[in-house]
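We modelled the chain as a single entity of 835 amino acids. Its sequence is:
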Amino acid sequence: RVHTPRRSTHRDAAKMVSLRVASLFSGIGGLDLGLQQAGHRIELMVERDAHCKQVLSARFPGVALLNDVAEVLPFMLENIDCVVAGFPCNDCSCENLKRPGLELGGATRSVSHVFRLLEARRVPWLLLENVVGLLKWHSDGEQRPAIDYVVNELENLGYRWAYRVVDLLSFGTPHKRRRVFVVASLHGDPRDVLLSQSAMCSGECVQLGMNNECYECFITPPRVPTKMFSASIDLGEKRRAPCCDIMHCFTTSNGRRTCVATQIGKQKAELSMLAIEDAERLMGFPPGYTEPCYPLMRPNERAPVFDTDLQTMKRFSLLGLACSVPQSRWLGEQLKCPYNVKFTYDALATPFEKPCPGPATRDRSSKAWPLAAYNMLNVNGDPKWTGRQRAPNEVSEFPLIRGFTPLGDFLEFTKNKPVRYELREGYLRRLELAHENIDSTILAALDVKRDSTQVTLPSPSKKSKIDILEDIDAEDDEQAANEYDDDSDEDEGESEETEAAKEKRHRDENNENDLDEHGMTTHGECSWVKWKGAVRGKTMYWPCVALHPLRDHAVIPESARDAAFSTKFTEDHRLVIFFDDRRSFAWVKASEVYPFDKFYGEAMKQPVFSSKAKFTQSVESARAWCNARNLEAPVNPIVQRNNAHLFTDPSPCYECDVCVTEAHKAMADSKPQTRSRRSSGTESELAAGRSKMKSKCAQMKIIELARHGQIGATLALRKDKAVGQRIVVLWQRDNAFYSGTITAFDPHTYSFRVDYDDGDVDLNFKPWTESVMVAQYVPSNVDSDIALAKKANAASALKAKIIVHTAADAALDENPLCKKTMRRDDAGVAIQLKL
């Protein structure tokens, strides 16, 4: 049935007013755009977020825009008829697991500025908007709902008020978004604006000539089948199942991870990420409304590099905080003629039992705050809260009857936006744990069941109970498990495992031991891959780990073994795992993969703009991976010979010049100097001096660095045993890696000599201060002939130089200087002093 409210006189109905509106906490202008479409004028806007301000400046040109609500003064509301405020909901929202509320939170508390302004300047109308969590008690059972504070302030200021929960589905948009709206007035009846309309359709929507049914009739059995099946899926949510034919409520984080499953007839089900343009349309905004939010344009600064991905993420985040336009437009139309429709359910209302109804922890029997209530302040000297009334059930969340458009028919831009398999697989695993009945179309769209004809590689055989039971049919699980247990009882003593052994076996079975602490595989080779970036489709070299499909097939992720894996099981392909937060991977040709150390210089020369921070972080991760991999290699002699020494207490080497000097100084300070004690001291005295000194020996720092896994420090601890070790060193000035060999160790200076393959020699090489990789399997150089020629030429030049200096010294010895003149002429002959 449809309620037909009693209308007022024709004279009152003709009073169409256009209010002058001041918007506090404007956001991106959801409330303001709806009121503007209803015919009201926006005179003042207040917003502190820089991204929102750019949207407001572009969409509401010429409107005064202030930075903060704290800066608004009462005289600024002199000619204002209505104040609207969608104040922050962070502290009351049920999406916030902590829900600190007004008392413990900081964002929602800023609504107090609204009452500060109203106390000094009584504006005729007030409109507030927030989440449904505004009506709910907090988890501790002691802190009251925020709505209690709001209505108390309004009653103290003399405002009549009414609030109501309104669902966006009532306006025909396939978006489940419930919001609390509070309307207050000094002279008018807020019930006429907010509570007078209520749709309780029983099929009348068809008689009204609508093309589609309203939402209530659409979900009422028997349902008329839609042309297209559609369901919205939040890939990061497991508490709630996918929503069929409607979109779940947008938050600041779930928009960018939302996808839509669709199927037309008996065609193949498809899954696509939600387009930002469709998300704007679901909120009532025109497509592209939020585009000006990113990048931020600051005065007297260069325009930042445009990044589409970052812009899209920011736009989704702003939509989660916005008020929908259809809801605000409906309220604007009601405010434009506030006395046209009268509230007629006053006789069915019930009064509040106490100022703030439960459910508190100590009073579960009392009723909670209703979905709709009001207070007309008709108390006759009683406390003002006694005028609070619960609206009857006839005042539902659906104020209007509008034709409903299913989600599949509503979307226009959500096409050809594929969803990565890892996201689908992880979401389905969490969904199956939390829900039992999942629509088969959604499963088909997620595409979680692989093709049975897919060629997969045999994994290494592991004689474990888990692997045996995995191949048993489901109907014989229990019987086969018992038989397996009976066979294992024959050798019970040998089959018992300790907790540590079980954990190790479990990690081995799941390949967890093949991952480092950052989740990157420890197999493969560090490389560069030529990859097409997301920004402007530009191709650049990116660090990665390349896995060989033959040698490393046991550690290739299951998700990488797609239907085309069998065609890539050759020497010509590599599976590259990128150094990024998502550990994304791709199959590429072997010709597109380059060695990390050999190609380092060329890769670092490429121009990097918008992805510079990510690129730098990835390069650092790749270098750390190379060092850690060399340190953890089982054939690495550094670990084998120094494993025990790394975890001892740091101690000086007692051999370098620093240690010798400190030992002599400590010995001299401990005893008085006498004529007979000016010798260098005995060995026992030096040992006593060493025990008292606070050493500045380099080995103290080296051991600390080696404990943190630095390969250069670990190499330095080998001292003379490191001679002959092949290494690759990064030269920061050339921005390139060079390979060489350690040829000598100097214990006095605690440094090494490195002969590089290109002929250069470093006589004071300190590996703990350099970026070093142990190159056990790296050849001396790619072009060995050129390297040998350079080395031979350098040796010949050094030998010729030595011969020249030797001949010169011999000539000088044959013609000594005169001790009186100490000079020579141009021919090198000593000048004699003439008397």
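As a brief sanity check on the tokenised model: The longest strand covers residues 736-746. The chain has a mean pLDDT of 77.
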